[in-house]
Amino acid sequence: QVQLVESGGGLVQPGGSLRLSCAPSVSISSIDVMGWYRQAPGKQRTFVAQVLRGGTTTYADSVKGRFTLSRDNAKNTASLQMYNLKPEDTAVYYCAAGMNIYGPTSWGQGTQVTVSS
Question: What is the CA radius of gyration of the chain?
């Protein structure tokens, strides 16, 4: 199983920006899918975005146009740049790697993002 270390969460005002990073314990170029999910209090974990090895990205409708996910083989990280944050983006964000029929095969420990004035 791949170990994933997340960083970059915090408190930001509505309309602000944050950048989350995820560093896997193996070469990111060996991972077919890197993604981010989030879980708000009292709610289920939901998909946010994913990027394939070749760079193809997919986003949840709720973040499309505001979030950008990229993977950097040289830095061995996958980064989620979040713009125009809204209070409803408040959640614990989880990095995920790999994929099987049940979903991601590895998860990070989660990082809190709070959007509040």
Answer: 13
CA 34, CA 41: separation in Å to the nearest integer? 24
DSSP-assigned letter for residue 103? B
- Rounded Cα–Cα distance for residues 78 and 89 (Å): 19
- pLDDT tens readout for residues 14-37: 999 999 999 999 999 999 999 999
Task: State how far the Cα of 105 lies from the Cα of 117, in Å rounded to an integer.
Answer: 36
The torsion of the CA quartet 43, 113, 69, 79, rounded to 10 degrees, works out to -130
Q: Phi-psi category of 15—alpha, beta or left, where left has phi over 0 and alpha has psi -120 to 50?
A: left
Strand partners, 113: 10, 91
Spatial contact of 26 and 87, defined as CB atoms under 8 Å apart: no
Q: What is the predicted pLDDT for the residue at 85?
A: 98
